[in-house]
Amino acid sequence: MLPGAVHSPIRAAAAVPPGANFRHYSPVSRAGTPVRQAKRQTRRALCGDTANIQDKEGLPLKGMLNDQSLIYQQIAQLLEDGILRGEYPADSQVPSTNELARAFNINPATAAKGINRLVDEGLLYKRRGIGMFVAPGALETLRARRREAFARAQVSDLVREARRLDIDRDTLLQLVADAADKEELL
Questions:
Q1: pLDDT (tens digit per residue) in 28-46
Q2: Spatial contact of 16 and 22, defined as CB atoms under 8 Å apart
Q3: Three-class SS of residue 144?
Q4: Per-domain residue ranges for the chain?
Q5: Chain centroid to CA 20: how far?
Q6: Alpha-carbon distance 102 to 135, whole Å?
Q7: CATH number of 47-136
Q8: Can you tell me whether residue 67 is helix, strand or coil?
Q9: What is the number of helices (H) and of strands (E) in the chain?
Q10: What is the model's pTM?
């Protein structure tokens, strides 16, 4: 050890040169810190495929968070799915920011960002001091938006793949009709 140098077990473990900023020599990236890994594991355990977490009124918060997209977008998507399933009819209260934060082990600000996205889109409205509620017409708005997205993404991809496989229009329509019958689509 050099004369006048102070021994630090943390710096020694990370092999950080004396006088260097420890933060830049961290052996683990910020996203991979043990605390973040533990939170991610807890969130996965709470929000697995069969997660049915109850809010304060005993209503289920169904859903699952993953690492594929931003958490606030997933929160907004979960609430949209609940509206489409009929769990949150028009003028009914949705789970609060704190309920979502507790249920999914996330920061309340993240849950608020997801809820505020739905407010900005006109799907939810705020009653000051009471909570967030589903706006009248939100179900119809969501269905129209999802139909458009479905046609743009899924149906277009289906038609493109049929063209690549040299499937003609009548055969494609018959395949879709057969699949609809199998799934008992009206």
A1: 445 556 555 555 554 454 4
A2: yes
A3: helix
A4: 7-40, 47-136, 139-182
A5: 39
A6: 24
A7: 1.10.10.10
A8: coil
A9: 8, 4
A10: 0.60
DSSP state of 153: I
Q: Which of 168, 185, 94 is nearest to 138 (CA)?
A: 94
DSSP conformation class of 27: S
Helix-helix angle 169-182:156-164, to 10 degrees? 130
Rounded (5°) CA angle 49-116-78 = 15
23 confidence band (pLDDT: 50, 70, 90): low
Distance in angstroms (rounded) separating the CA atoms of residues 116 and 99: 15
The CA–CA distances, whole Å, from 148 to 112, 143, 151, 179, 183 equal 27, 9, 5, 21, 21
Reading the block at residue 86, the tokens are 């009929």
Longest CA–CA separation in the chain, Å: 86
**Quick check: 23 and 11 in contact, CB under 8 A?**
no
